[in-house]
Amino acid sequence: MFTRDDAVRAVENAADAATLFDTGPGLAHRRYRELAAALHPDRNPGDPRAHKAAATLNRLYTDWKNSRHRTVTTATSAYTLVRPHAVGSIATTYRTTGPHLVKIVRSPALNPLIHAEWTALRTLDYFTERHRWLRPYYPRLLDTSGPVARGDRAFSVLEPLVDGFITLADVGKAFPEGLDGRDYAWMHRRLLRAVAGAHRAGVVHGHLTADNVLVHPEQHGIVLIGWSFAIEDGALPLAADKSVRYPPEVHKGQPVTAATDVHMLHRLMLDLLAPGETRQREFAKWCTQEDPARRPDAADLLDEYDDLLGELYGPRTFRPFTIPETGA
Ligand SMILES: Nc1ncnc2c1ncn2[C@@H]1O[C@H](COP(=O)(O)OP(=O)(O)OP(=O)(O)O)[C@@H](O)[C@H]1O
Ligand SMILES: [Mg+2]
């Protein structure tokens, strides 16, 4: 629930309807009702600021509803948005009437990040033509907004990975006690392949978070998504995500390198593995050393990690992985 002050501020600071209502699939109406209740004239008699905010709220909600079936166009195609799919750190992704996922930045100021994603995904697409086995680890960019008018928001059109996929963040939530090392093993092996492959293509992901990994539990699939912070190895980052715990070099304003990804990937491992997975945690700590130069390369880690798994669990076998029912 919102207090009067929170609700007034939320409405006054909302850049547009999407900022206020794209809070998650199916949550817009609830958000509207909660804000409307907090701003209601009966609860705020003689309060012109609350009255004005209530009027703005109604206008923004109407805008939002009208935009739900809005169509975005590119040089060659039109995509009709049906509903928000997920809210990311800089963009919201939308399901469309077709087999597409449209990722629109939440503010035109973030357009350069979407452009960075196009560059990264095109580089990976080109690279995986010669290294086909790496293709499943990266999302497909199907179309882009191209250059947009000043003040407009750029977008990517991606292949939707929606059947049987969930984010690694959701996997983490389903296992509040942490993941069994044997389950994390197949995910991490594939993550290392995805990251090492990108590094060979000259791309640093730069934003390896649990929201940016899609997992297909049944097929043991891993796809590395969320490439808008991607840059060339050794470049300075375009922006930083305030909600992310970055490696020390990022805080010091130093360039982002392949070693930055290695750190972030193993920070993720430490966050998700059960506390009792001592050996794997030691491995992860070795990869999150303070000095980037001391961290191993992702490509070298492929064998190192397989050696560790061999020592811990013996020959590899397929271990089915299912997400426990939450009853929710
Ligand atoms: N190809 C895809 N298929 C299915 N879901 C996706 C796909 N791409 C993104 N998503 C979902 O949308 C969310 C937001 O997308 P994404 O991570 O690409 O944007 P972002 O977080 O705003 O930016 P960044 O590129 O910095 O991560 C993801 O966390 C994921 O849940
Ligand atoms: Mg993301």
The unreliable regions are none
Mean pLDDT: 93
Put simply, the count of helices is: 11
For the record, the CATH class of the largest domain is Mainly Alpha
Radius of gyration: 22 Å
Terminal residue distance: 21 Å
Global outline: globular
Task: Indicate the CATH architecture of the largest domain.
Answer: Orthogonal Bundle
**Class by SSE composition:** alpha+beta
> Which cofactors or ions or other ligands sit in this model?
adenosine-5'-triphosphate, magnesium ion
Beta-strand content estimate: 5-15%
CATH topology of the largest domain: Transferase(Phosphotransferase), domain 1
CATH superfamily of the largest domain: Transferase(Phosphotransferase) domain 1
Strand ordering within the main sheet: 1-2-3-4-6-5
Return the string of H and E elements: HHHHEEEEHEEEHHEEEEHHHH
Number of self-contained structural domains: 3
Please tell me about this protein's structure:
The strands form 3 sheets. The protein has a 6-stranded antiparallel β-sheet, with helices on one face. It has a 3-stranded antiparallel β-sheet with strand order 7-9-10. With about 325 residues, it is of the alpha+beta class. The protein is built from 11 helices and 11 strands. Helix 1 (about 5-15) crosses helix 3 and helix 3 (about 30-40) runs antiparallel to helix 4 (about 50-65). It starts with a helix and ends in a 15-residue tail after the last helix. The structure holds adenosine-5'-triphosphate (ATP) and magnesium ion. The site of magnesium ion has 5 residues, from loops. Adenosine-5'-triphosphate binds next to strand 2, strand 3 and strand 4.
